Amino acid sequence: MKKTLECPCGQTIHGTDEDDLVAKANEHLRVEHPGREYSREEILFMAF
């Protein structure tokens, strides 16, 4: 199960599970990178 994502901006995002990671990644995108959107599949593809 993938639970960590390194954003190209340098921030590391951790989730308790894949659903939590996707939610936190989407929140990070909304706050830090307005206008950028990724699907669940794209986020999990970049995660480890």
The rounded Rg comes to 9 Å
- Strand residues, percent: 5-15%
**Poorly predicted ranges:** none
Going across the biggest sheet, name each strand in turn.
Answer: 1-2
> For the terminal residues, how far apart are their CA atoms?
8 Å
Average pLDDT:
97
Give the key terms.
two-stranded antiparallel ribbon; 46% helix; single chain; alpha+beta; 48 residues
Summary?
The chain is an alpha+beta fold.
Question: Can you describe this structure?
Answer:
It contains two helices and two strands; from the N terminus they run E-E-H-H. It has 48 residues and is of the alpha+beta class. A hairpin with a 5-residue loop joins strand 1 (4-6) and strand 2 (12-14). It is globular, with a radius of gyration of 9 Å. The chain has a two-stranded antiparallel ribbon. The model has no long low-confidence stretch (mean pLDDT 97).
Chart the SSEs and their pairings.
Layout: E1 4-6, E2 12-14, H1 18-32, H2 40-46
